Amino acid sequence: MGRKQTRVSGASNEGKAKLHRLLFVNPKESANMDELAQRLISLKLVQEVILYDHRLGYVAKVRFHQGSEPKNVRAYISGLLSKDYGCVVKE
Q1: C-beta separation of 58 from 7 below 8 A
Q2: What domain range is 44 assigned to?
Q3: What is the total count of domains within the chain?
Q4: Residue 63 placed within a domain
Q5: Main-chain phi, psi angles of 31, to 5 degrees
């Protein structure tokens, strides 16, 4: 039996950063992984996004600009992420 091939999508902004957070996104069936990556990278505080396609949803590795990580990452991402993509389930 072969292994399922993993899809990865990412985006990056210029500049130094050091803070990484992992989030689990429970996507809607119609959610597009590449569009979600672009939406996340468009958020003001986010410098880099890497999405991993998991059988249960997307795992998002998010890096914030140095010194700009919000106190509640899950609430920050959820509040700015369109419900078209799903919801952030766990940080």
Answers
A1: no
A2: 8-15+23-90
A3: 1
A4: yes
A5: -65, 140
Q: What's the whole-model pTM score?
A: 0.68
CA distance 51 to 24: 10
Question: Tell me: the pLDDT tens digits for 62-77?
Answer: 888 887 888 888 888 8
Answer whether residue 36 is part of any domain: yes
Give the separation between CA 73 and CA 78, rounded to whole angstroms: 8
Q: What is the pLDDT of residues 5-32, one digit of tens each?
A: 445 555 565 555 456 788 888 888 878 8
Is 56 within a domain? yes
Backbone φ, ψ for residue 71 (5° rounding)? -65, -40
How are strands ordered across the β-sheet holding 8-12? Answer: 8-12, 46-54, 57-65, 17-27, 86-90
